[in-house]
Amino acid sequence: MAYLINLAFTKVPGTWRWMLGIAGVPALLQLVLMFTLPESPRWLYRQGRKEETLVILRKIYPANEVDQEMESLRKSIDDEILLEGSIGEQGMLGKLKKAFGSRVVRRGLMAGVIVQVAQQFVGINTVMYYSPTIVQLAGFASNDTAMALSLITSGLNAIGSVVSMFFVDRTGRRRLMLLSLVGIVVWLAVLGGTFLGAANNAPPVSDLEMRPFANQTCPEYKPSVHWSCMDCLKAESTCGFCAHQGDTLRPGACLALSNSTKGMCHADHREFYSEGCPNKFGWLALLALGAYIISYSPGMGTVPWIVNSEIYPLRFRGVCGGIAAVANWVSNLIVTQTFLTLTKALGTAATFFLFCGVSFLALIVVFFTVPETKGLQFEEVEKMLDSKDYKPWKRYRPEVPLKARDIGLSML
Prior knowledge:
- The protein has 412 residues and is mainly alpha-helical.
- The protein has helices at residues 2-8, 15-21, 24-34, 41-46, 50-60, 66-87, 92-100, 103-121, 124-137, 143-171, 173-200, 207-210, 229-233, 259-267, 282-296, 303-310, 317-346, 348-369, 378-386, 402-411, and strands at 239-242, 253-256, 272-273.
- Strands 2-1-3 form a three-stranded antiparallel sheet.
- Helix 8 (103-121) packs antiparallel against helix 16 and helix 11 (173-200) packs antiparallel against helix 18.
- The termini are far apart.
């Protein structure tokens, strides 16, 4: 929906200001609706407000299940308080010291932080935040076209998140992430190769095409030097490529980038390129971009959050979940703040190859450090992480309770 709203505002005066400001509407709506949100029954019970807890539980559960849910809540909170008491020190530093002193927490936190960092370092938010720019780098000059085509990435991301709901409990968390990373590596390599091919086949700059724009040429351009569209866009004084009239793959003109030169180029029924060059690989880049999103969303897009909700002991879940979330958003900041700089310094193809290499490294690290938590209770996860022969790449088999074994033997 955000992409659709942005597309609607591309022709409105003050474009980006409206795009940014309109986000205040759902925020205001959420603020109003939050006043109708009841407190968590668990929080109320811990505050000793048991009557209020019962009122909320009666709104959620059938009348014949309320007493059972209340008893389950009581037992769960009593156990939680007992576990919290075992930590001893209640300050944040004390909790952190106690947490890092536990082998279970260290192993769980390593896995939790790794999947959160990997989620960002495969480059997903460069695609989500800069997809219109990437579309333009693929050779689509129009802002409207770039915004419209970027809807594909956001739509596929939304669909992929729904798809993960049907597979995460069948396939398993670990396997789904590994399959996701394999797809990410493949399609980032294809993207890098596509942009490399586009750069090597960029249309040349022609003296003949420059003549109609004699006073608007790029300052660095010299008729004696062979330039392509890519050389034009890399010029220090910021220049753009005015494509050939009728066939964008034929030689064009390199002009100083300004609104007047854009206007002159468009007036002559030509396309003006300022981010990427016209090429015949544009649709392959879009295909690879879509396949990358399809690979990412059901696995690395959703599973790291699920793993982080299952892998920590109850008494340390809050502090460990917070550390993992901080790691995620710091990684997000690093990736998104460096993407455009990397494309300028290394080129678009090299930037995607770099992300491909990082994703391959993430695949190896996730394989050797992240265990499978599918179907395991919290206590079983804790036993798995505390095991002396703990190997994340091997499926943990919890011990079968004695009664269950006896029943199985009697049936045999």
